[in-house]
Task: inverse folding
């Protein structure tokens, strides 16, 4: 299985856009800390958190079929004052 090292989620903290780099096709889920899925996108390289409240979100990286979790990363969203 692919480790976190090959998948990068940045910048962190972010004020809005988060870039995901991966050597293979992936799905991305963004969850709040209670585990609710807020954003789900397939074959994505970028997720926009700018409409979400400031706080900590969990980026769950799944394989292209959404069947298996590959990695997860906490991302803090802060509005630039």
Result:
């Amino acid at each position: 299985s692919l480790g976190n090292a090959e998948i990068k989620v940045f910048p962190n903290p972010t004020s809005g856009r988060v870039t995901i780099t991966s050597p293979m096709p992936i799905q991305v889920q963004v969850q709040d800390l209670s585990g609710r899925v807020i954003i789900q996108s397939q074959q994505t390289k970028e997720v926009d958190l700018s409409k979400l409240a400031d706080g900590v979100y969990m980026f769950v990286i799944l394989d292209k079929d959404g069947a298996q979790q590959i990695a997860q990363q906490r991302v803090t969203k802060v509005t630039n004052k």
Observations:
- The first strand starts at residue 8 and ends at 10.
- The chain is about 0% helix and 50% strand.
- The radius of gyration is 12 Å.
- The chain has a mean pLDDT of 91.
